[in-house]
Known about the structure:
The protein is an alpha+beta fold. It is 32% helix and 35% strand. It has four helices and nine strands. The protein has helices spanning 14-29, 72-96, 118-128, 148-158; strands at residues 2-8, 37-45, 48-56, 62-69, 107-115, 135-144, 162-166, 172-177, 183-187. α1 (14-29) runs parallel beside α2 (72-96). It starts with a strand and ends in an 8-residue tail after the last strand. It holds the Pfam family Ribosomal_S30AE.
Amino acid sequence: MQLQVTGIHIDVGDALRVHVSERLEASVGKYFDRPVDAHVIFQREGPGFRAECTVHLSSGMTLNTKNDATEVYAAFDGAVERLDKRLRRYKRRLKDHHNTQKSPLPAYDAPTFVLAAEQEEEEREDTSGQADPIVIAEGTTKVPVLSVSDAVMQMDISESPFVIFRNGDGGINLVYRRDDGHVGWIDAGRKQNED
């Protein structure tokens, strides 16, 4: 397992790194034999600590969990418990769908941009007279090829508000959690029949 442990405004010692490594390997190893990538971030959150765990499975799925507690070890242990529940749920869904996919999911690179906040844009508009947003960063993001049910599963296990994916036809799709609790699906590639 490739593991990265990061501390934001806190020092992550060797004892905590060993604890993180042992707990993650035990938790993920119960469900998956193939290597995975994991990133754990510790940071101060008010009077306590927050632990965020991100695990990239070899199947292409990503799981995210976080937990707040008064102690750093308790914050991590809570996040790993949530991760363990999600891994168990994901493994059960894979068995229920009889999904025997052995290779990672195909994905396409899509350009991504980070735009300046609105406040900065207003200041820029006042000084230059233009309303163009400022591009702060550029990069690429993987857009996986998924079925709609797999995209919903990815959204559920990663706590993301939405998932962008390509369907079997190659069109861009989006699934998202609606305010009423249901899941919405936008299929941008589907053409409507004209009368």
